[in-house]
UniProtKB/TrEMBL annotation:
Gene3D superfamilies: 1.50.10.10. GO terms for biological process: carbohydrate metabolic process. InterPro entries: 6-hairpin_glycosidase_sf, 6hp_glycosidase-like_sf. It comes from the Bacteria. This is Glucoamylase.
Length: 450
């Protein structure tokens, strides 16, 4: 047991129990690698996603960092998981600083898509670990290797993904893993702003040799100033500026990126306008909660994944936003909706759809090959991608769709669309965001980067 000082005394016994229950589900999505690290997968090992995704794990790493220095009963177990994850990232990060979309337990890269936000996510994971270890007073083995990797990942991103002529990072795909993100997206750029904020914090708070150069540290301030000037129009944030320079005003979960990555206080009016627009436009009229984006399935950039419907991790983030705004009633309403769609084990899916929409998806997109064409559109795939990786992913997709049809359909004659389907249950990321929502509700969590 490590002797560290908690941030505050915990007075919510029921909350402690609930947080522990969700952490157990998250741990059910973990495996031990041949190298001895315990790492988090996107879902259980037998699911469609038996991989380590830097994006998903970065999104949970801030929660793990908070819990590691809290008075919750799981603090020490959480810290060991965070440390193990960071060691795995240290192993898979290429010598030149590149980090891919996803990895097998062996550390082999299994990326399918070009996805430029991963370096940001790797920096977030490594920085959260180092800052947490420092706060707990832990010894950090191989600290120079960690700092060198942070330097390399930072330099790689700036050299390969940053466009200084417009002061933004470009992306081919990112959070949505489709060309919907191609260009200069809100998510990718705020992910990098968070990453460089944390890198600067590592440099200032750890008493270590000066491995991270000054130009990395000064980059953050100029980039932040430019981002809040460029990624804004009509008094709200933009989803993206496309590769031709056109403004994309469509509603998208990623309009919450400034809040999600801790910069909500920079201009709260912009954030409130963006969040209100997004919530109104993306609300699912049959199931409640929010969709990722509007499901115009005729667009090659729109992947509907077993039928369109709400995504529970994004809905949980919206609940966090309402709790942060001191609007507990709206936050509670969203959490209650998520609760409605947990399974009998208390597990939360990635997203849900209706039985009618799922059947339509299978007939109109899966059986026709349209979904395959969208998923494996050549210009968003990794260069020289081995076709075996495409087959592996396609087989995972088919297996999951079959499982949904056989085991995950919940008929309900009272629902206009015949009931609902649950897709990928549990999703590790959904439980992480739900936990954050609970902590926001009790005033125990903040990702504020200001």
């Amino acid at each position: 047991m490590t002797n560290h000082k908690p941030d505050r005394q915990l007075s919510h016994t029921n909350l402690d129990s609930e947080i522990e229950a969700h952490f157990k589900i998250i741990k059910s999505c973990s495996v031990k690698t041949d190298g001895g690290e315990t790492i988090l997968l996107a879902a259980k090992p037998e699911s469609r996603y038996p991989y380590f995704y830097p994006r998903d794990v970065a999104c949970v790493s801030g929660l793990l960092a908070y819990l590691s220095t809290s008075d919750f009963s799981i603090a020490d177990d959480v810290y060991e998981l965070l440390k193990s994850i960071a060691k795995f990232v240290l192993k898979i990060l290429r010598d030149d600083g590149y980090l891919g979309q996803r990895y097998a337990l062996s550390g082999e890269e299994k990326s399918v898509y070009k996805q430029e936000d991963n370096n940001a996510h790797g920096l977030i994971i490594l920085s959260n670990y180092l800052l947490t270890a420092e706060k707990r007073g832990e010894d950090i083995q191989d600290i120079d290797k960690f700092l060198l990797s942070i330097n390399n990942a930072s330099q790689f991103a700036i050299k390969n993904y940053y466009r200084p002529e417009i002061n933004l990072f470009h992306s081919t795909t990112s959070i949505h893993e489709s060309a919907l993100e191609e260009g200069f997206s809100c998510w990718t750029n705020f992910a990098y702003l968070k990453a460089f904020y944390l890198v600067s914090k590592v440099n200032s708070e750890l008493d270590t040799p000066d491995i991270i150069p000054d130009k990395i540290l000064t980059f953050k301030s100029a980039f932040k100033h430019n981002l809040f000037g460029i990624m804004v129009s009509n008094k709200r944030f933009l989803r993206r500026i496309d590769q031709k320079g056109n403004y994309d005003f469509k509603p998208d979960f990623t309009l919450l990126s400034p809040f999600y990555f801790g910069f909500g206080n920079e201009d709260k009016n912009l954030l409130d306008n963006s969040a209100g627009f997004m919530e109104r436009q993306l609300w699912d009229p049959e199931l409640g909660m929010i969709q990722r984006y509007l499901p115009f399935s005729g667009d090659i950039e729109i992947h509907t994944h077993a039928g369109n419907g709400p995504w529970l991790q994004y809905t949980a983030v919206l609940a966090q936003y309402h709790y942060w705004c001191k609007n507990a009633e709206k936050g509670d309403g969203l959490v209650s909706l998520i609760d409605r769609y947990k399974n009998e084990k208390g597990e939360i899916p990635e997203h849900i759809s209706t039985c009618k929409r799922f059947d339509a998806f299978i007939e109109s997109e899966w059986k026709t090959g349209i979904d395959f064409a969208k998923e494996f559109d050549k210009h968003i795939l990794q260069d020289n991608l081995d076709f075996d990786k495409i087959l592996e992913e396609a087989n995972n997709m088919q297996r999951t769709y079959n499982e949904v049809a056989e085991r995950c359909m919940i008929p309900d004659i009272t629902m206009e669309e015949g009931g609902y389907v649950m897709f990928v249950t549990p999703l590790m990321w959904s439980h992480a965001e739900y936990m954050k929502a609970l902590l926001y509700k009790h005033g125990l969590y903040s990702n504020d980067s200001m």
